[in-house]
Design a protein that fits this description.
Layout lengths: L1 H12 L6 H17 L6 H25 L14 H4 L4 H19 L4 H20 L6 H10 L1 H10 L4 H32 L4 H5 L3 H22 L4 H20 L5 H27 L3
Helix pairs in contact: 2-3, 2-8, 2-9, 2-13, 3-5, 3-6, 6-7, 6-8, 7-9, 8-9, 9-11, 9-13, 11-12, 12-13
Length: 288
């Protein structure tokens, strides 16, 4: 029973019970793989990237909680995290982090050299992000980069290079990361102000909803342009219309800046990403 208890604590430490972060990492990677592979990505690359996404997200949760271990106890959503409560010790957490990073390294070493080089940069960004909340007022940009890094890696693994469309998709995905992390920051604004954590939601104040809306428009514009550049058709653009409607729903959720509803808007992005992927996959599948 003690072993099962420890495994349960570790599972909660890497937030396997809250898989939204896995989806937010995975969907852009799959967008990239399907576009790079023209609807038929390499099976081995697909498997490695799906497994790698779960491993990287788990490692990212640990380093984030390590950085926030002294402040999580003061935030309503994070006060029960294993590092904040002391259920998991710092040495245990860091050991698990190293193990997960080594597993990730083992996975990426099965890919080509460019993919490995990009993975090293991605690992650095993953470790850097949790600490930026103390020093800059726009940590959402760093998170957007970290959660989008699978895009150029996917193109590199599939094609051996990252073409212009790959970097365009990367930039578009950064915008998406900024959108959902701003919604996340809006949910935490009251607690963040108390403990001195910085965010774009605090920086912009009442301009936060407008900012999210502008970023949503930029994302949708980029999605249409990328779709046109790779010759996508009706299924893809129908998905774009649906994505726009989901963004409208998110604006409805955050209209009063209620913490619980802002967090619901953040979580809704897992569904949003799934719809975008479905539109890409179906468009390639039914391509004439």
């Amino acid at each position: 029973m003690k072993v099962l208890s420890r495994l349960g604590a570790y599972a909660r430490l890497v937030r396997l019970h809250q898989p939204v972060g896995i989806w937010l990492l995975l969907w852009p990677t799959l967008w990239a793989l399907w576009i790079a592979g023209e609807g038929r990505p390499d099976q081995r690359v697909f498997i490695v990237f799906v497994l790698g996404t779960v491993v990287l997200r788990s490692a990212g949760c640990i380093i984030n909680d390590y950085a926030d271990r002294k402040i999580d106890a003061h935030v309503w959503r994070t006060k029960d995290r294993p590092l904040a409560t002391g259920e998991v010790s710092v040495p245990e957490a860091l050991t698990l982090f190293v193990v997960l990073m080594l597993v990730g390294l083992g996975l990426v070493l099965t890919m080509n050299r460019l993919t490995v080089m990009l993975a090293v940069i991605g690992a650095f960004i993953t470790i850097l992000y949790p600490f930026t909340k103390r020093f800059i007022s726009f940590p959402q940009l760093v998170l957007g980069i970290a959660f989008s890094w699978g895009v150029p890696m996917a193109f590199a693994a599939q094609l051996g290079t990252v073409p212009t469309v790959g970097w365009a998709l990367f930039a578009m995905t950064i915008a998406w990361g900024v959108i959902y992390d701003t919604e996340y920051a809006m949910a935490d604004r009251v607690d963040d102000l108390k403990i001195g954590v910085r965010s774009v939601a605090i920086l912009l104040g009442d301009m936060d909803r407008l900012f999210v809306g502008v970023m949503q428009i930029l994302f949708l514009t980029a999605l249409v342009l990328i779709g046109q550049s790779v010759g996508r058709g009706a299924w893809f653009f129908a998905g774009t219309v649906l994505a726009a409607l989901i963004f409208v729903y998110q604006q409805f959720l955050i209209r009063d800046r209620d913490s619980a509803l802002c967090f619901t808007a953040f979580r809704n992005n897992a569904i949003f990403g799934a719809y975008v992927f479905a539109s890409i996959m179906l468009d390639y599948h039914f391509e004439a």
